[in-house]
């Protein structure tokens, strides 16, 4: 008898011709997460099996891996002989306090001499005989006893928990997350990774208007996100000269709109340079002036790369719930402002006009400043493996 963790794939099983690629990517991500542990993995198109001395620690790390539908702690037996299965179940339930229960049997080995119903019925008898006071309840049992019979092995398990679901990080290519110090953008990054996107991130700093604590806050948020992907490259862009140029040359009601257009231009260039296929941000429709449909349209017009907004249709409370779930909320609400918040005008335009944006931008030389911002970016690789950032790339 071997105690092990069984992983069920869930959504990955719908990929048919591409399933091997998805499963291999999932295994690679699990290997990275378990790198420092003593473990062994076996897998096929139906299940993944992990053997390790410390299964509890393995399970903790699996909780951060996308592409897992269910995490099961169970027992593997090197036989499918029915009398032996009954003896194995007896040894597991003997002296246990099972109250109401049901037995669920699955047979991937269809040539087995008994049907799933016949197996469940017979094994239910084993439990009733060896667990005094136990009763069968097929509708609302306190304990579900799962039996799986494959070609040459059988499995018994009682406990399972939900995984993160989604796709393994990396199967969909890379995206560049516009990461601020707020609540929304880390949630957008998390939801993007859930769909298989590997993240890089860009942060715009504006010293002395923004503090070093604001940058460290964003680095901490990137580290939280790296728990779900192993690592994240963070591009830090010096934005002070551009922001001050906007303040000098643009009417105040258009400050945020023009600032966002500059950020989009810079982000697109960094994305293309690093083979990122999309931009990702935490914009939510109507939440602030720069997130009306008119504003989004005018801001989007300066780039050709696709932009996705995973939280666009979420309300603030829904976003906060996810932020707390991923343990980013307490960091996100730290009182260190980023450059999107420190220069917000009293009455920002909510329906900006593209022609006016073009006119205001044509009145000063922003292109040189954008070129310099891209050339002087700082890149840090942030990993989940330790509490320190790696050296600058």
Highlighted features:
disordered C terminus, alpha/beta, elongated, eight-stranded mixed sheet, 14 strands, Rossmann fold, six-stranded mixed sheet
Order of helices and strands: EHEEHEHEHEEEEHEHEHHEHEHHHHE
In the CATH hierarchy, what is the class of the largest domain?
Answer: Alpha Beta
Strand line-up across the major sheet: 2-3-1-4-8-7-5-6
User: What level of helicity do the residues show?
Assistant: 25-40%
Cα separation of the termini? 48 Å
* Global mean pLDDT: 92
Work out the count of structural domains. Answer: 2
Structural class by sheet pairing and helices: alpha/beta
CATH superfamily of the largest domain: HUPs
Helical element count? 13
DSSP summary, beta strand count: 14
CATH architecture of the largest domain: 3-Layer(aba) Sandwich
Rg computed from alpha carbons, rounded to a whole number of angstroms: 27 Å
Q: Which segments are poorly predicted (pLDDT under 50) over 5 or more consecutive residues?
A: 386-393
Q: In the CATH scheme, what's the topology name of the largest domain?
A: Rossmann fold
Largest sheet: 8 strands, mixed
Shape: elongated
| Percent of residues in β-strands | 15-25%
């Amino acid at each position: 008898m071997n105690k092990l963790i069984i992983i069920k794939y869930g959504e990955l099983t719908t990929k048919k011709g591409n399933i091997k690629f998805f499963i291999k990517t999932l295994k690679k991500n699990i290997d990275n997460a378990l790198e420092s542990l003593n473990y062994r993995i076996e897998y096929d198109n139906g299940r993944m099996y992990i053997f390790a001395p410390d299964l509890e620690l393995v399970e903790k790390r699996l909780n951060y891996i996308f592409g897992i539908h269910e995490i099961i702690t169970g027992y593997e037996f090197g036989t499918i002989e029915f009398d032996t299965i009954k003896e194995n179940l007896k040894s597991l339930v003997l002296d246990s306090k099972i109250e109401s229960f049901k037995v669920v049997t699955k047979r991937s080995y269809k040539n087995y001499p008994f049907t799933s119903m016949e197996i469940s019925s017979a094994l239910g008898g084993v439990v009733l005989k060896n667990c005094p006071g136990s009763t069968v309840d097929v509708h609302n049992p306190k304990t579900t006893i799962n039996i799986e019979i494959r070609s040459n092995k059988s499995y018994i398990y009682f406990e399972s928990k939900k995984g993160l679901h989604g796709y393994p990080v990396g199967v969909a290519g890379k995206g560049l997350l516009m990461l601020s110090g707020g609540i929304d953008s880390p949630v957008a990054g998390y939801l993007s990774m859930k769909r298989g996107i590997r993240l890089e991130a860009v942060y715009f700093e504006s010293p002395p208007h923004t503090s070093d604590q604001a940058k460290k806050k964003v680095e901490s948020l990137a580290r939280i996100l790296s728990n779900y992907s192993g690592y994240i490259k963070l591009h830090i862009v010096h934005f002070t000269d551009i922001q001050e140029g906007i303040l000098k040359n643009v009417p105040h009601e258009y400050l945020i709109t023009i600032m966002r257009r500059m950020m989009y231009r810079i982000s697109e260039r960094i994305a293309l340079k690093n083979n990122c296929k999309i931009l990702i941000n935490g914009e939510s429709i109507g939440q602030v002036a720069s997130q009306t449909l008119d504003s989004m349209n005018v801001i989007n017009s300066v780039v050709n790369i696709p932009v996705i907004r995973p939280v666009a249709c979420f309300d603030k409370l829904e976003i906060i719930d996810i932020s707390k779930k991923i343990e980013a909320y307490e960091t996100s609400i730290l009182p260190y402002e980023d450059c999107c918040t420190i220069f917000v005008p009293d009455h920002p335009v909510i329906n900006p006009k593209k022609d006016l944006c073009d006119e205001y931008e044509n009145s000063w030389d922003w292109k040189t400043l954008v070129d310099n911002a891209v050339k002087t970016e700082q890149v840090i690789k942030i990993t989940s493996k330790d509490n320190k950032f790696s050296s600058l790339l």
